[in-house]
Amino acid sequence: MTTPLIILAILFLPTLMAVIIGRLVGRPGFYRLVGRIAFAMAFAFFAVGHFVKTDSMAAMLPSFVPQKTMIIYATGVLEALLAIGLLVPFLRKQAGLACIAVLVLFFPANIYAALNGAGLGGHQWGPVYLAVRAPLQILLIVWGYWFVVRDVPDGSKQTSSIL
Fold this sequence. Notes:
mainly alpha
């Protein structure tokens, strides 16, 4: 069950450090930039998993799904492109919305895997894993909205020109 811990570390460690650094240097909005980068790093981590743990991820899909390996590779490419899109200023908001859609649309595969004890990252724990995964999924959706999609009032757009 290390995958959820890795995801939490990717999101929170750099962002919390950015809060502290931003306050020390008088740039309180700095954490927003780092939060976006952390979200991109999480999606890059997801993408890498598709290429490193392909067979385990394919096992997370129901037996009736054709071309499982190709689907895993394609979704890995999609997540990598989304990670890059999060870092491109004029694509950021659309990439953030697409990331949220991916999180929602891919969640049924996590439910299937947990109910069938298939795949990796804790799915072997069975339905108990959903008690961890569902809140993590909600956190990722809220994170994407908060740091990427939502509009920030003009007074706090201190890092808008950077990434």
